[in-house]
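hey m, so remember when u said the tokens were messed up on ur end? i reran from scratch. heres the input so u can diff it against urs
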Amino acid sequence: LAGQRVVAVSGGGGHNLALAAGGSVWSWGLGGYGQLGHGDRHFQLLPKKIEAFGGQRVVAVSAGGGHSLALTADGSVWSWGDGGFGKLGHGDQQDQLLPKKIAAFASRRVGAVSGGRIHNLALPADGAVRSWGDGTFGRLGHGDQQEQFLPMKIEALAGQRVVAVSAGTYHSLALTADGSVWSWGGGFSGQLGHGDEQD
């Protein structure tokens, strides 16, 4: 990253992403699932630029458990790495060794993304939060524990103006415009903040 002015970083399960001021993305660490985005499964001991984003200006990055997410200036969401549980959002469980645009967001501009261990959250401009990946413990917010291979709107947040989201390991968080914090998913360590250990 010598000579680069880094404006954002994200640490995942065993890899990292850095976003440079010019919109380029750099990655390093574990690469066994292709989560570094270099077209292979190699480890990187030093930050390496993801060449697949040539011509794209990336504005946000999020490193998940064994996968990665990026948001480009046009509001598109890209994912790559471990495809297990459908967490890449492409409708299957295939690993992606290079960044691939999530087609489900083609008609809506996304303003923020968050990668968890095996699930993800996205916040489109319309404020309707989408989640996908592993639904165990209810972490996707759809009232069940089903996997979602494609981004799905969280109906329970309808009517709320969500301004930020964060995907954890077993749970999820959302912040609404009135300053309220919402949580859902696994609560067995009290991580939902409701004073109990209920999911």
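this time it looks ok to me. The radius of gyration is 16 Å. if urs says something different then somethings off w ur setup not the seq
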